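Regression test attached.
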Amino acid sequence: MLVARLRFMLGRGLKRKLSDYEENMAGLSSAFDSSRNLPYSLKRQLVLNMCLTKLQTYKMVVEPNLHRSVLIANTVRQIQEEMRQESSQQPVNVCNGIAPNPLSYPGIDSSGISLHLPSGSNQQESNGCNSWSAEGPIENSLLMVSDDDMSSAISSILKDLDFMEDISPPTSLVPAGDDEPKSPESTCLKLEDDRQDLKGAECVFGSFEISNSTSYLKDLAIDDIFEDIDTSMYDSDFCVPPLMTPRPPSSATEETLKTFPSCNSSSANNIPICRTDLSELDHIMEILVGS
Amino acid sequence: ETPKPPAAAAVCGGGGSDPVPAGASPWWAPQPPAPHTLRDMAGVAGGGGGGGGGNDFQWCFSQVKGAIDEDVAEADIISTVEFNYSGDLLATGDKGGRVVIFQREQENKSRPHSRGEYNVYSTFQSHEPEFDYLKSLEIEEKINKIRWLPQQNAAHFLLSTNDKTIKLWKISERDKRAEGYNLKDEDGRLRDPFRITALRVPILKPMDLMVEASPRRIFANAHTYHINSISVNSDHETYLSADDLRINLWHLEITDRSFNIVDIKPANMEELTEVITAAEFHPHHCNVFVYSSSKGTIRLCDMRSSALCDRHSKFFEEPEDPSSRSFFSEIISSISDVKFSHSGRYMMTRDYLSVKVWDLNMENRPVETYQVHEYLRSKLCSLYENDCIFDKFECCWNGSDSAIMTGSYNNFFRLFDRNTRRDITLEASRESSKPRAILKPRKVCTGGKRKKDEISVDSLDFNKKILHTAWHPTDNIIAVAATNNLYIFQDKIN
C-alpha cells in the first residue's frame, strides 16, 4: 500500500518535490562526507533514510536490481541492529543529543507518525529539548527535508514498522522473476504482516493530500488493507450513501446485498467496490452489534 | 620466463605467506608456466616482460572509435570489451545489443604508421530487446559480456550475452565466389534446361571480402536472474554462465539443457543477504572455477567433488580492517570482477576502491592490494546518494601477468606494475588524442594546495566512468571503453 501511495503521489505532480528532495539529499550527503562535527547518530539516521528511500524506489520498479537491493537491505539491517543494541543498553532519553531511540527523534511522535513535522524553528517546542537547536544548520536542514518530503516520512514509517515487527528484515526483496509460486506475493507478504501496524500509522495518510479526482484510485491495488483505513475523506460520486445510514437490521442486509450488484463493476479496482466493501463491513458490524 | 614469486603482502601489511598444506591436491601446487608466459615477452613487447625492473611503459594514443558528439546516444554506450586469443580481433558490445569487431591490420611496409591499427571487421545485431509477457518485464538488449572461443578453423566464434540469453556467433569470411553454375545463371535464375548445351565446372573467383556473422546456438531460458558473467572452459567444449543467484554449466553443442552447478538462493527470499557478482573458469584446470560475491568473498569450486558445487573447496576473504569501518563498508567490499592470471596461479578481484591479487594457495588475505582511488573513501555518502557506489568496474591482466589495469572516474584509468610497484593514472580523452602522442600521467589532488595539472576530487566527472578495459594477450596494447568511445593505446616501444 505504501508503494501504491508513493506511486500515486508521484503521479499527482509531486515530482518537483522529489527533485527538491534529491537536491537536499545531495547537499546532506556532502555534508555527511565533509563534516566532522555531525553526530554519529545523525549520520546514521541520514544513511538509514537514504537506504529506505532507495528501497522504496526499487519497490516501484517492476524488476528491481537484486544486487543493489541486497546491499542496501544489509546496510539497513546493520544500522537497525546497531540502534537496537544501543537502545537496549541505554534508557530512552529524548533530551540527549545522541538520542539512541529513533522514536524519540524530533518530529516523530512516539504515539504514531505525524507527517507534519515541526519546522526548524518549532523543533524546540515539539520535544522541549534545547540540545537539538544547538546542532546547527545541517541538522535543521535534515529536519526540513523530513518536514516537507514524503519520501523521508515514508522512510520513517518503514523504520518504525520494522521496530514494531521487531524481527523481520526491513523489506522483502522482490526477486526478478522468481520461480517460486509464493514469491510474487512476497511484496504483499510484508504488507499483510504490517496490517496491524498500519493502524498505528493510519493517521499518516490522513495528512496526505487527496485530490477530488477519483481516477488515481484505479492505479491502486485495492486490497483488504484498506479496511483498516478511514476512507471517509474519499469523495465519491457514486450513489451508495444509503448504505451508510443506520437501518432496521433485517431488511438492511438484503438491501445491502441487492444494492451491491448495481454498484458493482467488473473491475476490482473500481471505487464503488471499495466503498461498498467498506460500507458493507460497517453495516454488518452495525447489524451484529445491533442484534 | 617463470613468474616471480609473490612479494609479501604489500598494502595489507601482512607477514609471510601461509605454508602450502601438505598432501594438498596436486593442482594447486605451483604450475609450470602457461604458454603465454613462456613467450619471450621482451622481444615482442619491448619491456613488458616479467623479469627485472624494465617495465616502464610509455603509453601512446593510437586510435579512438566512436562518435565525437557530446550528446551520447544510450544505445552507443559500450558495455563490454574483449580481445580474442591471438589479439588480432577486438570485440565490443553496447547497450543497443550490437557487437562491433575490429581487426588488427597486418604490418604493411608501405604504410608503417598504420601498423597494428584496428579497423572495423564486422558489425552485427546480437540481441534485440524482448518482452517477457508472463512477468510483464522488458529484457534489455544490452550486451553484458563477450567471450571468444579459441580459434579452431578459419571462422571465429564468440559468445555474447544479455541479461537472459547467451548466443554463440560464428564470424566467417567470404572472399571467393563461385561462378559458372550449370543450372542457374549469374542472377540466380534457373536456366532453361533446353538451352544448356555443354557442361562446365564452376570456378572460384575472388570477390570483395565479406564478413558474415551468424548465430549458431542460442542458449535461452536458463536464468531467472540477470546474467553477469560467462566463461569458456579450458576444455573448449563447455562454458559457464552466472546470474545473481545461480551458475549454470553448458555444453557448446547443446542448447536445450544446462546443468546448475551453484545455487545460493535461500528457501525464503527474505533471508537473502548475498548475491553472485562474477564467475570464471580456471585457465588450465577444466574442473575448477571461482565466483565472487557481494560480500567481498571468493569461492573456488571443484566440479569433481560434487554435481552441485554449493560447498566450496576454498574460501577467500580478507578480514575487515576495523579502523576503516563505515556504514558503506559492505557495499564497497562487493566484488565487481574476478579474473584469473594467465598463469592460473593468481586471481585478481576488483571492489569499489581497490584491486586485490590473491594467491590461490592463500585464502585468508590477498598477496597484493592496489588502491585505485582511495580519495573517494571520504566521499562515500555522496557516491551512495548518486548510486555511483554501485558502479561495477572490471580489471584485467597483461599477457605476462606483470601488470594490471582497471578504470576509474573522469575517464581515468589506472595501471599497476606488480614488480616495480609503480602505478600510473592516465586519461582517455579526445584532448590527448594526437597520433602516437605519449599520454601524460594524471594526478588527483586530495586536499591542500592543488598543484598545476592536478585535478581536485570535487572536479571529477562521475559520469565519465571507465568500467570496461582489455589488454592484448601478448602485446602492450590496451583498449579502454569510455562511455561511447573506444580508445586504443599502445606502448611506445611497440
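Expected vs. actual: identical. The first helix of chain B runs from residue 35 to 38.
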